[in-house]
Amino acid sequence: MSRFLLALTLSFGLAIPAQAEVDFDGVDDYVDVGTGLDQNGPVTISAWIYWKSNVGRQEILSNSDSAGGAIDYAFEVNRTANRLSLLRSNEVVTVTGNTDVSLNTWHHVVGVLSGSSGSWTGTLYLDGSSNGSATDTNNPSGTNQSTSIGRLGENNGSYFNGLIDDVRIYSRALSAAEILELYSSRLKYHDVTGAAPVGYWPLDDCADGTSGDGDTFVDRSGSGNNGTGDDGANNTGLVCRAESYLSYPGSVQ
Question: Which among 3, 110, 150, 202 would be 20 to 30 A from 62, CA to CA?
Answer without folding.
Answer: 3
